[in-house]
Each structure stands twice: as C-alpha cells, then as structure tokens.
Amino acid sequence: MTLSRQNRLGSSRDFGRVHRKGLRAATPHLALRALKQCKPQSLSKSADGEPSALSCVAAASLLSPSQFGISISRKVSKRAVVRNRMKRQIKAIIRQELPRIEPGWQVVIVVRPAAVECEFADFLRELEYLLKKLRITTDE
C-alpha cells in the first residue's frame, strides 16, 4: 500500500525547494529535510517578498496535508530490490505516524548508505526522533 496522492511529494521542483530551503536533521542512517508550506495568497509578505514565518503559523488551518518524498541513491545499494524494500518500510512508518504529523509540511527523507544494515525498528526509531527534533509531529 502506498501513500495517498495528497501525501506524496511529486515534482523534482518540490524536492529541490525542500533541499534548498528546508530545515535539516540527520542520524547515521537517515537525513531529513523539511519545509513548512505557506499559502502565499492568504499571507502577509515580508520585505523580500516571501511569506513571513509568523503568518505561516497563523495560516495552519489553511494548509494542505503534509507531503513526503523518499530519496535513495544507488550508492545505498546497487540492487533495486533492497532499495525498494527500504522505501516500503519508510512509507509504512510514515503511514503509521501520519495522524500525529502536523499539516502543511513538505518532507524529504534521504537514506544514507549505512542504512543497508537497518531493520524496520531502526528506521522507526530514527524517523520518530527526526520528526520530533524538527517539531513536525504533534505532542501527544
């Protein structure tokens, strides 16, 4: 089972924006970049033309569901079977955590080469840590 279309980060343009402007956090096996989405038409602009951070917070109710993308290079493993298994495990964790994730985030998860030896529990622990560190999940 895959993530729903509304929860997928689709275009390479979106991936690039998250990589350039997003918050960063990393563990030995995963790196996470996250960018809070803003609705530009409904928000006040700062001097440089970008929506102000305060207005992003104020417009949380207008934001779309959080979107996720996973990046696994061939440096991680030459075998597509191994890379796809890791993607499936990470997607399962995202689906499990989705109710706790605040709306309006664009998140890219980069899998590092050391992750080949990881099991599902390791991915779960590290991804939960990264989401909490960047305050993407709600406190429950």
Can you describe this structure?
With 140 residues, the chain is α+β, with helices and mostly antiparallel strands. It has one domain: Ribosomal Protein S5, domain 2. 34% of the residues lie in helices and 17% in strands. It has four helices and four strands; from the N terminus they run αββαβαβα. It has helices at residues 12-21, 53-58, 80-97, 120-133, and strands spanning 23-26, 30-36, 67-72, 105-111. It has a four-stranded mixed β-sheet with strand order 1-2-4-3, sandwiched between helices. Strand 3 (67-72), helix 3 and strand 4 (105-111) form a beta-alpha-beta unit. The longest helix has 18 residues, at 80-97.
Shape: globular
Treating each run of at least 4 consecutive H or I residues as one helix, how many helices?
4
Query: What is the residue-averaged pLDDT?
Result: 86
Q: What is the oligomer described by this structure? A: single chain
By CATH, the topology is: Ribosomal Protein S5, domain 2
CATH architecture: 2-Layer Sandwich
> Unreliable runs, pLDDT <50, ≥5 residues?
none
In angstroms, what separates the terminal alpha carbons?
26 Å
CATH class: Alpha Beta
Strand order of the largest sheet: 1-2-4-3
Main structural class:
alpha+beta
**Beta content:** 15-25%
Number of beta-strand segments: 4
How many structural domains are formed by the residues? 1
The largest pleated sheet is described as:
4 strands, mixed
Order of helices and strands: HEEHEHEH
Helix content: 25-40%
